[in-house]
Design a protein that fits this description.
single chain; 143 residues; mainly alpha; 434 Repressor (Amino-terminal Domain); 8 helices; 10% strand
């Protein structure tokens, strides 16, 4: 059974509330309609570029929200998570172990050699005491 991530659910809800057809949004962000459907259903999780494109297509931002404090509104969740890890004086090895991936993989993401998918990004956020949240634009989303 597939389960969509809360950010995926929020993006799906935002699309529906704005009355935007899935085909229109898929065209806007440059993916097949079937793939967008699979993301919304939780069958597949988008990679980071796709996730940011999806949010941007709905005039929203995926933000890093520390468990204590305000969301970090940054167009780069990797940079925000790296900064949080460093501010909290956590090593890459500590974060990787807590998140369930390897330190070399985290290093590749932080150095922008590879990109994490949504699930890895969410696990990384949790390991540094944060959540991923969707922050809609202050203006309406046009269909």
């Amino acid at each position: 059974m597939s389960h969509a991530h809360p950010v995926t659910e929020q993006l799906t809800d935002l699309r529906r509330a704005a009355g935007i057809d899935r085909r229109v949004l898929a065209g806007r962000i440059g993916v097949r309609t079937q793939l967008l459907l699979q993301w919304e259903a939780g069958v597949y999780a988008p990679g980071m570029d796709s996730l940011l494109g999806w949010a941007g297509g709905l005039r929203s931002v995926v933000a890093v929200h520390p468990h204590s404090g305000l969301p970090i509104l940054d167009v780069d969740p990797v940079g925000a998570l790296t900064a949080v890890r460093q501010r909290r004086r956590l090593s890459q090895a500590e974060v990787a172990e807590a998140a369930g991936f390897t330190q070399p993989q985290l290093s590749l993401w932080e150095r922008r050699r590879h990109q994490p998918g949504l699930r890895a990004l969410a696990d990384w956020a949790a390991a540094v005491g944060c959540d991923l949240v969707l922050v809609p634009a202050l203006v309406g989303v046009a269909a």
